[in-house]
Amino acid sequence: MGTSRTASVVVVWVLVFLPAAASAQSGIAGIVRDESGAVLPGVTAEASSPALIEKVRVAVTDGQGAYRIVDLRPGAYTVTFTLPGFNTLRRDGIQLRAEFTATVDAQLSVGALEETITVSGAAPLVDIRSSREQTQFQSETLQSIPGTGRLTTLSSVIPGATLTRPDLRNVGGINDRAQTLYSIHGAPEAQPVVDGMNHQMNALNQGVFIYNSLTVQEVVVETSGVGADRDHGGMQMNMIGKDGGNTFSGTAIFAYTGPGLESSNINDTLLARGLDPERVGTIKKFRDSGFAAGGPIRQGRLWFFAAGRETVTQQFVEGLYFNKLRQPQSLLYEPDVSRPAFSDNYSRDVTLRFTWQLTQKHKVVASNAYQPNCNCRFNIETNTAGAARRTPEAAGPHHYNPNYIPTVSWTYPATSRLLFDAGGSAQVHNQHDKREPGWDHTSYRITDQALNLIYGNVATRVLPRRQYQERFAVSYVTGTHSFKTGINLRQARIGNIKELGHDLFMHGTALDYQFRQGVPNQVTLLDAPWNFEEHITDTAIYAQDQWAIDRLTLNLGVRFNDASASTPEQVLGAGFFVPERRFAPTTNVPHWQNLSPRVGMAYDLFGTGQTALKVTLGYYPDHLRLAAANPATNLTRNTRRTWNDANRNFAPDCDLLNPVANGECGPWSDLNFGKPRPGTRFADDALEGFNKQSHNWQTSASVQHELMPGVGLTVGYFRTWYGGFLVTDNLAVTPADFDEYCITAPADSRLLGGGGNRLCGLYDVKPAKFGLVDNLITQASHFGNRTQVFNGVDITLNARLARGAQFSGGVSMGRTVTDNCIVVDSLQDARDGFCKVTQPWSAGTQIKFLVVYPLPWGVQTSAIYQTGPGIPITASQVITNAAIAPSLGRNLAACGNRVPCTANNEIALIPDQTIFEPRYQQLDLRLSRIFGLAGTARLRGNLDLHNIFNAGDVLSMNTRYGDVWQNPITVLGGRLLKLSAQFDF
Asked: How many angstroms separate the CA atoms of 351 and 208, rounded?
C-alpha cells in the first residue's frame, strides 16, 4: 500500500472510528435530579459570568439528567437550573479555572415557577472528568508572590520542574529568557501555548519572545495526559489572555533593584575555588515597568485590553572581563580588571487585544503583541556544561526586530450541543547578530583551551523566522459525551536565501584559532559566507472524545500528523577557501507521518466528586523544527589542522588549502571541507516513515483527593521513555580501524577514588583512515538498544483558604537512566562507566512550595521555598600526543608525519551524574501593604527579599581539568532586596 493511500485510510479511521483525549476547554457539567433521586431530563442549565461577553451559555440535560457547558472563560460563575413544575435553583460562588471541568450537580424540588432557591458553596477542587495533570496559576497569585508576577518564577514553584540549563537559575526571577527553558518528569522542554497554538518554532527562538504576564489572566501548566489537540508532549504552558470586560479596569507596576541592594555572598569555599575576591556582585541594573488597561468599547459587544511593559536586566559575570588587548596589535587575552563583563538584555512589549461579539453566537478575538527585544551580549551570563566562556566581543548583540505575534480566533455555538471554533496566528521575527563597537570582520575568533575562554571575533548574520498556524474544530456535546474533531496546520520558514544570501555568517578572516596558554596549537578553516533557507509544513487531524459512564470518564483519542521539510534553490557566495556553492531544491527532508494515541481515564472513586483516580498513556512525536537534510546545512563547514607556531608570529605559515601536512600545519581533519558531505547522507529510515520519527511515550497514574473544602492532595507516578534515536555512522571506518590506548588520571582527591587510576577504553583512528568521512545517518536500533527512561513520584498539596491565603507545592522524586552503550564506529562509544548514566534518586529529588498569607491592616506576606540537587561535577582533560603516544604505540593520527606534534585529545575523567555540588536551598520572602483608594482602586507596595540564606551556589563551573578546574563561572546572586509597587483600578 502506497504512502498516500495509507495516509488516506488513517485519516478516515481517525475521523470516523476513533475518539481522542478530552479537549482542554473549561466547562461546567453535572447531573440534575429530583428530591427522590431520579434524574431529570429537559432541565435548562444557564451559566452566567462577567467573564463572558455573551453573558450566558445554555445547555439542556439529556435522558440521563446530565448536562455539559463547554468553551467557558475562567472566572466566577452562577449556574441557574429551570424546569416547568419545579423551583428554580441558582448555584453561585463557582470559581471556574482554565482547562478545568467543574462538576455542579443539582437537586430540584417541586414548586412554583416564580420561586428561586439560591445555594452558595465552595468551587469544586477535583476535576473528575479530565485525566490530565495540571497546575493553575492565576494572575493574582503570580502578583502576590516574590517575583513581580513574572512568568519565569513558575520554574521555582512547580515541584519536579528542572531548568534545562542550571546556570539560568537566578535570584529574583529577573532573567526572563528562562520562561520555558525547563521540563518535568524527564519530558521535553516546556511549550508556550497561546489561543490553542504552540508558539515553539524551533530551538533557536526560545527566549526571543518574552510573554508579558500583565496580559495573562491565568497560566495552566499541563504536566501529563496532554490531549490529542496538542502537537507535543511534555509540559504545556497554556497562557489564557485577558479580554477586558464590561467594567474599565487596569494595572500599573514598577520594580527596581540594583547593586546597592545586593549582599555579598563570598565565602572561603568560593574564594578557594578561584572566585574573584573583588567580585562586584551579580546585579548591575534591573528595572521592570508596565501598564495595562481594559474595558468596554461597547457594553456586551466589543471589549479591548491593552498593555505595555519594559524590562532592563544587566548582570555581572563571574571572573570574566573585557579584553585589555586589541586586534590586530595582539591576539592574546589580558583581562581588564577595571571592566568586569556583564550581560545586557532588554525586552519591550506592546499588546492590544479585542473581543468582539459580532452577533448573539459569533465571537471574534484578535490580538497582536509587538516586541523589539535585545539579548545584547548573547548568553554571556550562561554556560552549558563543558562550553567555553565568551568575552563580550565574542558574544555579540542579538537584536530581535521585527518581533511580533498576531492571533485571531472565532467561536460559534450553533446550538447548545454543536460548537465551531477556529483560529490562526503568525510569528514574525528577524534575529540580527551584530558585533560590539570597535570590532570588525578582520578580527579572529580565538579559543584558549587553558582559560576555557573564547575571545575576539563573532559571526554576524540576519536570520528571519516566520511561522503561521491555523486551526479549525467542531465539537458535539451532550451531558455524558463530548466529541471534538479538528485540523491543525503549521507552516514555518527559517532563513531567506534570496534576500540575505551572501551576508550571513560572514567571517572576514574565515579562520578560527585555538591556543593553549597563549600558544597556538590549532587553526580551523571556515566555509564563510554561509546561509540557508528551509520550509516546514505540519498537517494534523485529530479526533477526541470524552465519555462519562457512571463514575468512570474515558478520555480516548488519536492524532494523525504529516510533517515535512523542504528547501528552495540555495546559492552561497564564494569565500576565502570555498567557491560558490549551488544547491537544487529538495523536498521531504525529512517527511514523517505519525499516528499518536492519547488515552486516559478518570474515575470518581467514592462517587462524591472529591476523589479521582487518573491514568494516562500517550505517544508524542517530536516537534519538527528543521530540515535535517538541508544540503546547505550538510556542508562540511570547517576543517581543523594542528599548528606548530614555532616562530611565534601568530600566523599559520603553511599552505592552508593543501590538505596534507606542510609548513607549520598538520593535515586536514576532514578532507571533504567546503564540499557537500558525501557522507552526511540519510538512510531512508532517518528521513521518512510511519511512526519512525524521534518520539517519547508518557504514562502516569495519580490520585487526587479533596481533603477539605479548598484543600487538595495529589499523589502521582510518572514515566517517560524515548525512541526513534538517530546515529551517525562513518562508513569509511569500522571498529577495527581504531587503536586503543590508556592514560593515567591525575592524582587529585576531588576525582573519583582520588584519581591516579588507569583509564582505558580510549581509541584513536589509524593514520591511514584519518580525515576520511562517509557519514550515514540512520536509526540507532541497527546497532543495539539505546534507551532513555525516567521514573518518578510526585506528592503535592494545593490549598486555597479564607481571606486569600494559599499554599501550593510538594515533593518530587525521580531519576533518568540513559543507556547509550552501542558501538557505531569506535569501541570508545561503549566506554565502560561512561556510556550508561544512572542518575541517583537524590539528584532527582526536589521540594518546592509557595505560600500567601494575609495579615491584619492590609498586610500580606508570601514566600517561595525550593531545595534541590546541585549541578553535576564533570571533568575533561586535554591529553597531549606526547602523553598518549607511549600507550598508543604511535603518534595521534592528527599529527600526520609531523614531529613534534601539537595534537591532543580531550578525555572525560568523571562519568556524568556521579559527583554533585551540594544541594541548594533558596527562600524568597515578600511583605506587601495594600492601601484601599477611592472606589475599587488599590495600591500595593512590595518589599521582596530574595535568597534569604544568602547562598552562593555554583551554577556552572570550568569543567576542563587543570589549574582552573571547578572554578566558578556562574554563582547564584547574593541576598537581594527588590522594591516594587502595583496600582490597580
From this structure: 16
